[in-house]
Amino acid sequence: MDKKRSEIVIPKEKAVFWLDKNGRWHNVHGEFEHKKIINYFHSAIRKDKQGYYLFQERGKFREEVYFHYEDTALFAIDLVNDPDVTLILNTRERIRLKPKSLFIQGDSLYMKSGTDIIKFTARGLLKISDLLVFENENYFIKVNNRKYRIVEK
Questions:
Q1: Distance CA 38, CA 25 (A)
Q2: Which of 8, 45, 61, 118 has its CA 20 to 30 A from that of 101?
Q3: Range of 78's domain?
Q4: Is the Cβ–Cβ distance between 95 and 87 less than 8 Å?
Q5: Cα–chain-centroid distance for residue 128?
Q6: What residues contact 126, with CB distance under 8 A and at least 6 apart?
Q7: How far apart are CA 129 and CA 41, in angstroms?
Q8: Which of 54, 121, 135, 112 shows the shortest CA–CA distance to 88?
Q9: Nearest Cα to 68, choosing from 149, 25, 12?
Q10: What pLDDT digit, counting tens, does each position of 102-115 carry?
């Protein structure tokens, strides 16, 4: 019995799907509509030194498909505020909010996490809006009775 695993790596130039600036998957036929497929794609996102790719392992084969994305591949889609503020990403990963790492660019809110940039979706913004404050032409976030200024780039 051959225990060797076949590995298929597809470069992003040959990928037939991409992620738009709002975290929605597309192919030549348009935006993905099937929720289970969308969730499966998001949960399969991985990153290595070459960039973001979708990963799946089935039986004796392993597949990595690098894909294009318009803004970032990671999105804050929800949050839990108990007791710390935890972001839920499109990948289903949970990471702690880092108030000092938030920034605004254009009309979007982002958070830097190591080398990754996480963008807040409309739903993510709605969930975090109770913590946001606008004073004297500046945006702030209030977390654990502390107020942090959000820089604009």
A1: 7
A2: 45
A3: 74-152
A4: yes
A5: 16
A6: none
A7: 27
A8: 121
A9: 12
A10: 999 999 999 999 99
